[in-house]
Write a structure and sequence with these properties.
The chain is α/β, with parallel strands linked by helices and 129 residues long. It has a single domain, classed as 3-Layer(aba) Sandwich (Rossmann fold), CATH 3.40.50. 51% of the residues lie in helices and 19% in strands. The chain contains 5 helices and 5 strands, in the order βαβαβαβαβα. It has a 5-stranded parallel sheet, sandwiched between helices. Helix 4 links the parallel strand 4 and strand 5. Helix 2 packs parallel to helix 3. The longest helix is centred in the last third of the chain and has 22 residues.
């Protein structure tokens, strides 16, 4: 399956999301904020990132902006943003997320969004070859 990075400052949320995705057969990595996520993306090269918006040090929108500005081939990694307000949805969308899911999140929503993001990325990559 896919390598997925989950970024959320809430350890319980990270653990639950990771469990759902591991049970679906994915390899999952975790980061507690945007700064740690940037390092993890460079080290692990995930196929997909799922990030929260509200986090200390570097929020989800700042992380996505930094990822989209990266010149080492990481800017095209699909990102699903998670947040509970329309303002955070707008900020994540402006930063360049591929999809947005509102919190609280349901397992089926997460798995559907992950499947769609990975499928879309696969199609885009096939055109680049």
């Amino acid at each position: 399956m896919a390598r997925i990075l989950i970024v959320d400052d809430n350890r319980l949320v990270r653990t639950l999301l990771a469990q759902v995705l591991r049970e679906a057969g994915h390899e999952v990595y975790e980061a507690e904020d945007g700064a740690h996520a940037l390092a993890a993306v460079k080290a692990k090269r995930p196929d997909l990132v799922v990030t929260d918006f509200y986090m200390p040090q570097m929020d989800g929108a700042e992380f996505v902006k930094a990822l989209r500005e990266d010149r080492s081939g990481l800017k095209n990694i699909p990102v699903i943003g998670l947040a509970g307000t329309s303002d955070s949805e707008r900020k994540l969308t402006e930063a360049g997320v591929n999809a947005y899911l509102p919190k609280p999140l349901r397992e089926k929503q997460l798995l559907a969004a992950v499947g769609t993001a990975l499928h879309d990325a696969e199609i885009l990559n096939s055109f680049k070859k």
